[in-house]
Amino acid sequence: MNAYLASVLENVKTKHGNEPEFVQTVEEVFSSLEPVIEKHPEYEKVDLLTRMVEPERMFTFRVTWEDDQGNWHTNRGWRCQFNGAIGPYKGGLRFQKNVYEGIIKFLGFEQTFKNSLTGLPIGGAKGGSDFDPAGKSDAEVLRFCQSFMTALYRYIGPDIDIPAGDMGVGAREIGYLYGQYRRLKGVWENGVITGKGLSFGGSLIRPEATGFGAVYYLCEVLKHENDSIEGKRIAVSGYGNVAWGIMKKAAELGAKVTYMAGPDGYVHDPDGIDTDEKLNFILDMRAKDPMHCKPYAEKFGCEFVEGTKHWGHKDVDILMPAAMQNDVNLEWAKKIAESGVKYYIEVANMPTTNDALEFLRGQKHMVVAPSKAVNAGGVGVSALEMSQNSERLVWTAEEVDAQLKKMMVTIHSMSAEAAEEYGLGYDLVAGANIAGFKKVAEAMMQQGQF
Ligand code: GLU
């Protein structure tokens, strides 16, 4: 890493010592930027990187709500408008017990480059709350969402900042949040939030977009390696929206997901999670209890292993961590490398620790793809939802799917070309960082401020 990058990183470490996830993501992005910074001395001249690691704006707010027993609770809410150089701020909301500033900032920083990679005009943002959705009644979720939006609504808008879902925020929460926004503002601005229900401006394919997009990206990687998806066995972690989309698209294309994992352990279904019955069962299972995937193994008579992860088995061809950050650490990465598996395709935001990612990238027999490219189809289709809302039109599923596919093909080729341009070979991780960074950097330089 050159001296300029190292000094900015050092300052980030000092300033954000208590936000390890944020430091981790900055370090990961910076590790790819040396050749770009050397080619563009003008960036150092205006100290562009120090600006880039500082969110343009970040709000903290109080969210107070009453539970069904009449007890009052106070949570904290955040919105981080990280970088608006290329478009209005865009990014999801995460409701999870462990959310704090460091998580929101890391996600906002990642989102900035991810959104840039989509090729669409969307800046990077993220928000959320330390609200724990587990075990909450529908009425409690409604009251929480209304209170959350009452604090947030004055900072967002269809041309300002457009939130969406993330962990703990699905179609139900988006509906409640939008309902409260409309109530407060008294306008029909459905372009203010994405992931909406189809009856009020949602886009077809949005729920599946992240998973479908990840599989389209995977197909490009396979094509590059003169390989094909036909007959491949895929191990995913998670079984939420994203993992579910992967299962569905993989099955459609003649591959099968044979492992999935949840907080309670992992399931091995060698026949593949590839029938409507199995896919629908997962939807039901997670609606009832998002913490346990064991019921799947009981229902379909397959193996369940409690309290551990499935990484490192030899009977798979492709790994797709699609659950949460830091799912794969160096210990797991070593098992993965030993297993001889070739494809490591990140899907969740930052699912690999930096040392593990570096280790896997160093394995000659492996191809590693980064989440900020692989999962960008989700936010990409959110941007298509925004387009449909401003056009007052509804596109067909085929139209959205075709656009999504095109987007993923472009993201893959842009990343591969960026790495090639800097003599890095087929390095999709560096390529995505460089391609995502270049557009944001150019926009910031041309706008001459911030
Ligand atoms: N939370 C998703 C992500 O990580 C989606 C964001 C959006 O659609 O705005 O990209």
Question: Tags for this entry?
Answer:
single chain, 450 residues, alpha/beta, Rossmann fold, 2 domains, 18 helices, binds glutamic acid
Produce a short descriptive summary.
By secondary structure, the protein is of the alpha/beta class. The chain has helices at 3-15, 20-30, 34-39, 41-45, 48-52, 101-117, 138-152, 171-185, 206-224, 241-252, 276-288, 294-300, 330-339, 354-361, 371-374, 376-391, 397-421, 428-447; strands spanning 57-66, 72-83, 89-95, 123-129, 161-164, 233-237, 256-262, 265-268, 303-306, 318-321, 343-345, 367-369.
Give the beta-strand count. Answer: 12
Strand content: 15-25%
Give start-end ranges of low-pLDDT stretches: none
How much helix is in the residues?
Answer: 40-55%
For the record, what CATH class of the largest domain applies? Alpha Beta
Description:
By secondary structure, the protein is an alpha/beta fold. It folds into 2 domains: 187 residues, Rossmann fold; 157 residues, 3-Layer(aba) Sandwich (Rossmann fold), CATH 3.40.50. Helix content is 49%, strand content 16%. It is built from 18 helices and 12 strands. The strands form 2 sheets. The protein has a 7-stranded mixed beta sheet with strand order 9-8-7-6-10-11-12, sandwiched between helices. A 5-stranded mixed beta sheet has the order 1-2-4-3-5. Strand 3, helix 6 and strand 4 form a beta-alpha-beta unit. Helix 6 packs across helix 18 and helix 17 crosses helix 18. The longest helix is centred in the C-terminal third of the chain and has 25 residues. The protein starts with a helix and ends with a helix. 52% of the residues are buried. The mean pLDDT is 97. The site of glutamic acid has 10 residues, from strand 3 and helix 16.
